[in-house]
Amino acid sequence: MSDRTALRPETIAVSAGRPPRTPDAPTSTPVTFASAFVAGGEIEYARYGNPSWTALEDALGALEGGTCVSFSSGMAAVSAVLSIVPHGGAVAVPRGASGAEQLVGYITTSTPVSEHALKQALAGKLAEVMVPAHITAL
Fold first, then answer.
1. In this predicted structure, what is the pLDDT of residue 4?
2. Model-level pTM?
3. CATH, residue 113
C-alpha cells in the first residue's frame, strides 16, 4: 500500500517494510546476517541495500512520513549530517547527557561566535524547546 495517510500508526508499524504479499512468500523480510556480499550485485556491503536494513528503513520512514536512512553507529550518522552542512550552516541534535535530553547545536564558522548571543537570537525565532542547550563551533 503506497498511500498510508489513512492508516493509524499502529497499522503502519506492523505493515510497513514488509515484502509484497505473494503466495508462499514470507510475510516479513527475512533477517540477513551478512556483512559482506558477493561483488557485482546491487548490495555488495551490509550497509548498502541489505534487505533487513531496507525493511527497517522503509518501516521507520513510513511511520515518520518521510524517508529513513539508518547508520551503523551514532558517529556515522553525525559524520553524514555534518558532511552536508555548508560553511556557516548550523545543526541541532538531541543529546542524552546524564539522562536528560538536550539539544546541542553545531555550527561551522570562520569567525568567533558568542554562544550566549546565538542562543538569544535563536530564542527570538524558535520555540523554547528548540533552542540548543549547548552550541559547538566546528
1. 60
2. 0.51
3. 3.30.300.30
